[in-house]
Amino acid sequence: MGTKNLKFNSKTIHGGQQPDEAYGAVMPPIYQTSTYAQSTPGGHKGYAYSRSANPTRTALENSLASIENGEFGLAFASGLAAIDAVMKLLSPGDEVLATNDIYGGSYRLFKRVFENYGIVFHFVDMENPERITEHINTKTKLLWLETPTNPMMNIVDIKAVAQIAKKHQLLVAVDNTFATPYLQLPLDLGADIIMHSATKYLGGHSDVVVGALVVKDKALADRLYFIQNASGAVCGPMDSFLVLRGIKTLHVRMQRHCENGKAIAEYLAKHPKIDKVYWPGFENHPNHSVAKTQMKDFGGMISFVPKGGDYQTSIKMVERLNIFTLAESLGGVESLVGHPASMSHSGIPKEERVKAGVVDALIRLSVGIEDQADLIADLEQAIQ
Ligand SMILES: *Cc1c(COP(=O)(O)O)cnc(C)c1O
């Protein structure tokens, strides 16, 4: 069955998938094996060793390529392992421009690992794409985008950035973890590489740590497959199976995340004890018009600042929530709350963190798919 022309809500279930050839299993079996019998040296059925390839991982990689409108998918042991593979495309002296409000772990990998190998990173406010041009020089090779950004929910115009990148022959990589392909398809907008922490919405059930890359270009895919096999941070068969299962309900989960996200963003915005709410669905969000054109809906990630709040009052508030679990991560069916200054973003120097808007009182919600009324009641008791 060709699955290329299916709609998104069918691709999540069927994209790149066929029933297993051995017994017709509808879900790909978990090929929990490191190696494969050969009839003669090199005489195998496409699989020789599970670092290089494993059939369950292949099934996930095909699904990932399908839902992102790409040609080639690669599954890694974590989102950061996927980012690590992208950075290994570069050489000492090369420069990267990255969104300034970025996932803390990406920042740490860039500054504390790859800068030791001579790669130079500049963190740029990309909400205004023209600002990027000022930072491009002959050594610039890659643009690293997050949109919506974490945790400030800023929106970067992917199409505009990709046009600038083409002019200067730069690669554009988009961390699509927050939006997922349900909301936004960066390859269709001109990006070269999609990266996912599949740990989040793609897996969707907070039970696995997995990363992914998707590309269209064969030569780029070959370079990334080489790095994936050479460095070896691959996704195991059991984890591949869990993410495949998660992707099958991505569209229905995302629809509910968006509905609940909207209700909670609006509740917080009207609340007399809340000062600021960051959510791209608001008409007064600075890049709402870009969000409206490049995203199908606005998602369930929301950040907010309580009125007159400081570090301590926000910590008290997150401790008081019951249904929202205080935890790192996001994108699961259950609602989570985080305090970026002491948790996800504690690794970023305070001065830089506050400059990006991540103040001490900021609270981030990953709105799950529970009943809206229960979620709002939980927030109300904690705020009061
Ligand atoms: C979690 C996350 C990552 C890192 O992924 P892991 O699977 O935790 O390694 C990267 N980017 C974003 C936006 C994330 O939320």
Describe the protein's topology.
Elements: H1 8-14, H2 55-67, E1 72-76, H3 79-87, E2 95-99, H4 104-113, E3 120-124, H5 130-133, E4 140-146, H6 158-167, E5 171-175, H7 180-183, E6 193-197, E7 211-215, H8 218-231, H9 237-247, H10 250-270, E8 274-278, H11 288-294, E9 301-306, H12 311-320, E10 325-326, E11 336-338, H13 350-355, E12 363-366, H14 372-383
Parallel strand pairs: 2-3, 2-4, 4-5, 5-6, 10-11
Antiparallel strand pairs: 1-7, 6-7, 8-9, 9-12, 11-12
Helix pairs in contact: 2-9, 3-4
The structure holds pyridoxal-5'-phosphate.
How would you explain this protein's 3D organization?
With about 375 residues, the chain is α/β, with parallel strands linked by helices. The protein folds into 2 domains: about 10-245, 3-Layer(aba) Sandwich (Aspartate Aminotransferase, domain 2), CATH 3.40.640.10; about 250-384, Alpha-Beta Complex (Aspartate Aminotransferase, domain 1), CATH 3.90.1150.10. The chain has 14 helices and 12 strands. It has helices at about 10-15, 55-65, 80-85, 105-115, 130-135, 160-165, 180-185, 220-230, 235-245, 250-270, 290-295, 310-320, 350-355, 370-384, and strands spanning about 70-75, 95-100, 120-125, 140-145, 170-175, 195, 210-215, 275-280, 300-305, 325, 335-340, 365. The strands form 2 sheets. The chain has a 7-stranded mixed sheet, sandwiched between helices. A 5-stranded mixed sheet has the order 8-9-12-11-10, covered by helices on one side. Strand 5 (about 170-175), helix 7 (about 180-185) and strand 6 (about 195) form a beta-alpha-beta unit. The radius of gyration is 21 Å and the shape is globular. The chain starts with 7 loop residues before the first helix and ends with a helix. The protein binds pyridoxal-5'-phosphate. Pyridoxal-5'-phosphate (PLP) binds near residues 146, 175 and 197. Pyridoxal-5'-phosphate (PLP) binds near residues 105, 150 and 199.
